[in-house]
What we know:
By secondary structure, this protein is of the alpha+beta class. The chain has 11 helices and 16 strands. The longest helix is centred in the first third of the chain and has 18 residues, at 27-44.
Amino acid sequence: MATKKQEALPEEQALMEEAAPQTEMNPELEEMEREEMHDAIDAEGSPPQTETENAGEDQDAGAQESPPPQTGAEMAESDENSADPGTNADVEGDLSQTETEEPKKARGRRKTVKKASESDTEADLDDKNAGDGVEEAPKPRKRRSSARSKPVVSIDERPTVETEADKAKNDLLDLLESQKTGRILTGTIQGVERPADNPSRSLAVIYHGEFKVIIPAEEAVEPPDDYRGRIPEDVLHYMLTKRLGAEVDYIVKGIDPGSGLAVASRLEAMKAKRKAYYLGTDRDGNNLLYSGVCAEARIVSVIRAGIFVDLFGLEIYIPLRELSYQRWMDAAAYFQPGQRILVKVLEVDRSDRNQIKATASVKQAGENPYEKALRRYSVGNRYVGTVSMVDTNGVFVALDGGIDCLCSYPKRGRPPRGSRVTVRILGINNDSNRIWGAITHIAAAR
């Protein structure tokens, strides 16, 4: 409606100025204004008047309402407003006049008829373009629309590649779902922090997209039965540090979307998993985890003498002797937190539903290499191997196939661990899966 109005008389101009700020008009008033616009158009299309008639009309109009003179800045502002079809100046028009030109009527329609006596100055051409429908406003509108996020054109029916905004939204929905429904989320412990205001407290840090999930130490690790005289906070901090890089489960307890922080509990997630896998049953009524079954476990901590694994909500310690059929000195040389391994459940104790216990083995989950490898060797022959361990029983030499040959101390001195030696086989026992021999040659160290 603002692009088709036409000014006729100062009285109508004043009425239009009062109505311009309104965003919604009564339908009856809108119809009256439309009729006045048509009358103004008809009046403008009449033959041109003489200077005396124009002067008489100007005097009559001045007697009713005399508009105040405008300054140069106001005239420039009025011209700019007239060029913008979206402003109220499109309705009011230009009321200024100069000493050399006759008063001009404001243009409210897009197409106007100009008098032949008027000169087309640069400002008049701009006004004419604004009145003839040449709008410059769509250009900034295009720039504004280009800044908005546009939909992604996907190859399939649904996009498989998420935008950053979609990822942030889905991350927040995951955290909210975990908080409200108890859904278990999985993440990697990527840091251990101690707050500046409470340095005795330790926090595990997990990143879920752009959100930082913190788990207090008392909600991340199960405290030991005996602290051995050490400060409990220091023990929990050590246990949490040993689990850096471990893959753990957690349930969100609180979210602050503004700061991008969330608080979670790992022990609560472990309790829910234990209930589902150790106490839950299948359709036949059998437990999901039982003695003799093989299952996938996640390594959460590694020490020299063994590893700690998370077996469906239950942390189990597996000693070094159950990691391999070979003799190892340090488990950290073969395992690290975050790995997933296959274990065999040896025993499950469900006598106390709140304190479920289990034992597991890594080496028994696979095939015994001695049953196959022993057929490669025969008594009296020599083979090359690598010293894997030296203890009070003798020197253990790792042979090809994953088996160790126990040798006595050589007369020239015991070889260092990792050295290359030649072994002569003295005996093989297939029932006990044992093989023993003697070191005949030690390769010179490089």
